[in-house]
Amino acid sequence: MPTISAGALKRMLNLPANVVIGKPRIERDRGGADVAVVPVRPYARDLNRCAECGGHGRPYDRLPARRWRHLDVGCAKLLLEYAPPRVDCAEHGVTVAMVPWARRKSAYTRDFERQVAWLSVHAPRSAVSALMRIDWKSVGPVCRRVADELRARQGAGLFDRLRSIGVDETSYKRGHKYMTVVVDHDRGRVIWMHQGHGERVFDLFFRELTPEQRASIRVATGDGARWIDECAFRWCPTAERILDGFRIVSWATDALDKVRTAAWREARRKGVAGKGAKDPIKGARWALLKNESDLTAGQKAQLECVANTNETLWEAYKLKERLRMILTNRRRRMPRPCCADGPRTRSSQASRDSSRSARRSPDATSTSSGPSTADYPTPDSRPSTTRSRPPSRSATDTANSTTSSASSCPNAEDSTSNSPDAITSKPDR
């Protein structure tokens, strides 16, 4: 029966080159499951090295055999076994000798800890502990050791060549517990985190930077918080303060929803919708706030109903879509100014509310690139449920579908002809 050589087994287990392996054996754990045990030891030249500094020390004594958890072999756990000596280091005193396959004060190998750390980024801790078959409390220390090693390997270069940074706070656990996070937009990675939020916490980040590193920052993105502006201006006076496009769109949608609420209250006060009829404005909230590419057939019909029944709300919707188009499609040719077409109605309330929110930051016109979205309708276009119909349909089918689309808004025609005051408001004076 063919057997696997020691060299091939070492390559399969991805052990360091300066490790000698012995004959593996199979044992039973307390639960009766099979466990593979592989004896290992470092090369002679790497024995008696201090785990703190890596320098050679005098042999002090030898500890009993220890085991380190390695990556599983199939469904069986794999353990590396070795009796490490203790050495007397001239700088750090008596300490356990360094082993090349594991970090200091760890019961897991480097490969095992790297896999646990990677899984912790993409899955909750409970799922990681169940998959890797380790204690739930062991996941945090493993991630901390891996992060410390990566941080020590990168050194001060983590803050070098910073040009555009982003800052925001995020909540964790329950209650009002926040953490400030700073990212590097150029490299797309988190470079600094600290518990708490506000000007005092953000100051700690800039204090860790050298004057040259602070001078290299050209752009600082974030929401409209005043403490971000004050810290960025104090530590990086030449940096450009840019608002996050997500925040600007959020302010615009909030202003649009205020216009919708006011239009619905006005229509209800004037009795536009008949008794027992469904108000198209009241049920069109998500149709107005969602992207056009994400609208369902029913929401497209609601949006068409709004365009036919309430000019004020439709103008506010076009303002919101234009703003989204400017933020997400900057390379395209921009439409004419927002208020160039159509009468000045109460939709200017949406622009005033959005401008009031944007004035929280001094550079409200600058935005960071937001998520990519589909093409938006032109400002003068109106949604139509017939836009997605294939050209092969007959005229009879088109007429029937048009009739059904009109029936989805039963009070649109009546409200347009009988109550014009509820549709078009007076222009601003």
From TrEMBL:
Which segment of the chain is annotated as a signal peptide? none
Q: Where is the Transposase IS204/IS1001/IS1096/IS1165 DDE domain?
A: 165-329
Q: Which InterPro entries match?
A: Transpos_ISL3, Transposase_DDE, Transposase_HTH
* Composition skew (Polar residues), residue ranges: 409-422
Q: Which residues form the Transposase IS204/IS1001/IS1096/IS1165 helix-turn-helix domain?
A: 99-145
PANTHER family the UniProt entry points to: TRANSPOSASE FOR INSERTION SEQUENCE ELEMENT IS1557 (PTHR33498)
Biological source species: Bifidobacterium stellenboschense
For this entry, the protein name equals Transposase
Query: Residue ranges under compositional bias (Basic and acidic residues)?
Result: 353-362
Feature: compositional bias, Low complexity: 377-408
Residue ranges, annotated region (Disordered)? 328-429
